[in-house]
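Friendly challenge for the regulars: who can give me the structure tokens for this chain first? No prize, just bragging rights.
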Amino acid sequence: MAKVLFIQNSWFEYHGVEFLSAVLKKGGHSCELYFVGKGKEDKVLDYIKESKPNLLAFSISSIQNRWAFDFAEKAKKAFPWLYTVFGGPHPTFFPKLVIEKPYVDMLCIGEGEGALLELASAIDSGSDMTRIRNIWFKKNGQVFTNEPRPFAEDLDSLPFQDRTLYYKNKFAQEFPVKRFLAGRGCPFNCSFCFNRTMKDLYKGKGKYVRIRSVGHIIEEIKEVRDRYGLKLLAFTDDTFTLNKKWLLEFLETYRREVSLPFTCFTRADNMDEEIIKNLKRGGCHMICFAIESGDERIRNDILRKKLSNERILETARLLRKYRLKFFTFNMIGLPTETIEQAFETLTLNAKIGTTVPYFTVFQPLPGTDIYNFSKDKGLLSAEIGVEHMEQFFFFGDSIPLNQPSSPLLPNLHKLSFMAVKFPWAMPAIRLLVKLPLGSFYKLVFNVGLFYQEKLKLNLGWFEAITIARKLRKEMGSESA
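First reply, four minutes later:
Bragging rights claimed.
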């Protein structure tokens, strides 16, 4: 039996880790998870010394990789015999940058259930680990690279996500939202997203967009409900409404057998009146879709969303007709964006009456088409690489692109929620963004952030405040 220990720096549930753990345990191996609180690394090292895992595993994205690398370095110095493996989006798209680090023994590209199970079995039996598909293995300075195996096309064949990893943590178990994944893959090719690159990686290796059967996902929901209790479900598929026939069957079954509020993601052009009507009837609390920019040229020519303002307005009209709340994703600081175009994004959100307008600072992720576009246009203020990924995004105080609007856009980002919810204040906000009011901007931003989380999670004021306090406390703790 191989012993695998996942390390995270927050209690946030990762679907990938839960699927990997479920597959490992089904295969007869041991899998645990440790939450690393800030400044608590020594306690984790003590736990490793005591539990003696064979494999220390990290699932990371490009915007939160530094802490994982720092901890892996400490762990390898303390326990040279310990294997480290990195998986997730960052190693998948930047494998050479990851495997070259001296404290990284191996990485997993793409979907890892079959690969990690084979790796654990090889560790257990002492057999060769250099030829496992999806795994890049480093041995005596030599790197063995292996191509991905075909996709797991029958998602019903995978065991349910192993939530016990996370729910040993009381706060995670009691958090009012539980996340579910009905399928994998997205057919669209937005320039800022990883999906096109992922399709290229797996070309000829199976169907990219896959979905579980209605009965399979309903069974998992009922199991989680009966074991842990449920208040609100969040389906995290990129485009939950993609398959209309499947969706209508699911919503009818869900209404009969579960009947709890849920949220999901989709596109404004992937909904019609029948879908919206049935979403509302089926218990949808809030639907989430992306606008990204109020300027059609930026949205369609640069971001490649292929989505018109007219379609956004019509979808919003139908959502309001059926009183279905909606959450919109937007970006500030996009390539070539002027301050007026940024205000167009605020204006469009206000016009459609979005329940929760969510704004992030644009992040040019290396490896995406939009990163290459920004670089070719000379818009990158520096050679922004993966080591800069944590500087911007949500709480960014600066814009990574070098364009005339960049000095004002971080201020507008902080005021975006209030501008959309109180459009009568737009003229005043046009003046405010020009002033050096850093503390004021952050205060307004945090108030808006708290309120939008309250709306999204369907919480009362007292419950929202209680959870916010627990969250702040939890982020500074650690648990196995």
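Residues 438-456 form the longest helix (19 residues). The radius of gyration is 23 Å. Your move, everyone else.
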